[in-house]
Amino acid sequence: MTDAPKPPIHVILAAPRGFCAGVVRAIDIVERALERYGKPVYVRHEIVHNRYVVEDLKRKGAIFVEELDEVPDGDHPVIFSAHGVPKSVPQTAERRKLFALDATCPLVWKVHSEAARHFEEDFEIVLVGHSGHPEVIGTMGQLPPGAITLVETEQDAETFTPRDPAKLAYITQTTLSVDDTGEIINILKRRFPDINGPHKQDICYATTNRQEVVKQIAPRCDIILVVGAPNSSNSQRLVEVARKSGCGQSMLVQRAADIDWKSFDGLATVGITAGASAPEVLVNEVVEAFENRFVVTVETVRTRDESVSFKLPRELRGEAGQDAA
Fold first, then answer.
1. Predicted local confidence at residue 263, as pLDDT
2. Radius of gyration over alpha carbons of the chain, in Å?
3. Which of 14, 27, 214, 257 sits 20 to 30 Å CA-CA off 20?
4. Does the reported pTM lie above 0.85?
């Protein structure tokens, strides 16, 4: 007997996909800290929202905690995640004389700086974002309670009542749907024509670029797989964008083992992308899983080239083992 022939399937790989510069920087900070200072290195919250990345760093010697009270006193590094933290966190670290390294993405820092500037100018601030997300918690925690109002939906934008419409500003989470956020901002601008916004949108380049290519490939795909974590905002938004752009059968998978292969019976074209915190090794794993089951032809659709990079903290620049600059 011979094995039945594999059915054909066409795989469209979205590009850009996967790691953004902020994620690369955050992971590098943990790895450099382990090289320079040795084990253990403590990390407050998942450094980025991806289980594979977190487990890999755990194997190398990182210890993940949710709050600083889980970190013992001592001179071992404690690292703040890429999503940013409320001001109270570095203040607590300083009070306890902990050696803190901040892996907050510089584009999140940009939003924090905007919020501080608006507050200093006596503006009431609207934050467009998702309740409970670490980035939103960190941004709202930059200012006193009540200084920032969270707006999550178009309905929220329609019903929000400011203290003074002439002294109003908005900022946004960096990992939102570009189109959905645009609708919310349009409502705010319609209702409050004098509202002050960022000079350049707060949604980061990587989120924007990954959504852009998904919009392009979605009409051609029978199904789109987004490699990413359930708690990754930008990954979840990619699924939503794919569905709204013409590929209703789109879903999130963390790894190849999560794929329901019955979903692919009779399908001709599958799109694959990855959220900004998902490593390329997981994309390769998914493609290899298809190659084990199908005769695969691969096409890459690229809409942008990315060359963004961010500097490491001063303490970690240079070769491991050297004194900090």
1. 87
2. 22
3. 257
4. yes
Predicted confidence (pLDDT) per residue in 192-246, tens digit: 999 999 988 899 999 999 999 999 999 999 999 999 999 999 999 999 999 999 9
Pick the CATH number of 8-19+205-302 from 3.60.15.10, 3.30.420.40, 3.40.1010.20, 3.40.50.1360: 3.40.1010.20
User: What's the CATH code, domain 21-105?
Assistant: 3.40.50.11270
Give catalytic status of residue 152 as yes or no. no
- The domain defined by 107-191 carries CATH number 3.40.1010.20: yes
List the structure tokens of 130: 């998702």
Looking at residue 61, its amino acid is G
pLDDT over 70 (residue 86):
yes
Identity of the residue numbered 79: I
Q: Are 239 and 252 in contact (CB under 8 A)?
A: yes
Q: Can you list the positions of beta strands (E) in 113-246?
A: 124-128, 148-151, 168-172, 223-227
Tens-digit pLDDT profile for residues 304-324: 999 999 999 999 987 544 433
Query: Which residues, listed in sequence order, are joined to residue 224 by a DSSP beta bridge?
Result: 250, 271
pLDDT (0 to 100) of residue 319: 56
- All CATH 3.40.50.11270 domain ranges in the chain, comma separated: 21-105
Catalytic residue among 46, 135, 306, 319: 135
